[in-house]
Amino acid sequence: MSAHAMGAALGIAADIRAGRRNAVGVVTAVISDIEARDTRFNSVTRILGPAAVAQAEAVDKAMAAGQDPGPLAGVPFGVKDLFDVRGEVTTAGSIVLRDNLPATEDATVIARLRAAGAVPVATLNMDEFAYGFSTENAHNGTTRNPHDRDRLAGGSSGGSAAAVAAGLLPFTLGSDTNGSIRIPSALCGVWGLKPTYGQVPLRGVYPFVASLDTAGPMADTLEDLMAVYAIMAGRDVSVLPDVASVKVARLGGWFARNVSTGLTAAIDGVMAHLGHDRVIELPEVARARASAFLISAAEGGNLHLPRLRRRSMQYDPATRSRLMAGAMLPAATFVQAQRFRRWFRAQVHEALTQADVLVAPTTVGVAPRIDQPSIMVDGKSVSARANLGIYTQPISLAGLPVLATPLAAPGLPLGIQLIGAPGAEAKLFAVAAELQRAGLAACRPLDAGYARKEKAC
């Protein structure tokens, strides 16, 4: 199997395990590439150079001693700056936390990836405290879309998506509360996974909305995404179901409104290839989105209220105003939103008795321009930062796994959501693998620096 067929990260690990490359060479080359090229994208906030090289040296020593360094031996990766990395301050994209003590241990998922041989080399840009869909950060600057640097990368895991799309890293970690993995994955044209709620441990991940938060991987190949997810979740997905046995339907109604003609045509092509023409309409989707807004505002505002009382002016102004508004929501409003959430979740689960996988757009179209950060919804120009989640927020309420799938259409990236029942990630992977095989889904990294063969050290 070629490195491309097995995935970029898996290809690096295979080379290192076979002695064709060494971990120190790979990691130092990737760090040099980030230093040389990320000034164009602003995806990285810190390079973890000495610690990364030290871990890479340990991988090479294990190889020299005849030990198994793990399935991701020497593979460099980056993490959204809300995951604890031992020895580093977790800032969650804010100067408010910069004076905190460094983390004494890794987040659980990072510890699992290290144990598999992977090497964290960078922390990545994000919307402050994960509250936004654009990665416009008042402290660290805006992350630019590698496919068009005049456009947004999406958010809040924009640095994670852009680093993959730019070919700086083969995989990264992000978080998704209302679409923060799915949206930047679509706008940057990479693979991303929002796992089933509660499936991937969040210990050591700075919270936003505890009842909605998830953590997941982003990658330039489906194979790498699956491998990283398996390690993060502790689940084996090496054997996928026969795609012919997976029933697929398209979400209509709310999920068909406002979609660009190019994305609509691409989804038409996906459904035609899969041989499914069923359309399912979920009820009360607008209320579901409103409920997600209210729950996020209330939980986020409550979490930050003590610090807002003391240090509010240190927050990004756009984040501060929304958190303060959320903290002032009446308890009755939050309770009503949670009651509606339970009802809506039951409606989505009913839809999933009619189809195993639901297909929906991720965003209305391509990435908005940075100098015109808006999208058109129902004929009106609205803020991209607040409204890019028009199709992702309602789905978040149900706690379902969603695979952000980059479409292979020409031009700027477009993406779809493949939505499944809780625990049904394997069915999503099976459908995605068929779309990839048919040439309908693919990531297009610009310049995969990690694939270059560096000289042996």
Automatic annotation (TrEMBL):
Residues 137-156 are annotated as: Disordered. The lineage of its organism: Bacteria, Pseudomonadati, Pseudomonadota, Alphaproteobacteria, Acetobacterales. This is AtzE family amidohydrolase. It comes from the Bacteria. It comes from Komagataeibacter melomenusus. InterPro entries: Amidase (IPR000120), Amidase_dom (IPR023631), AS_sf (IPR036928), Carboxybiuret_hydro_AtzE (IPR014087). Residues 26-428 form the Amidase domain.
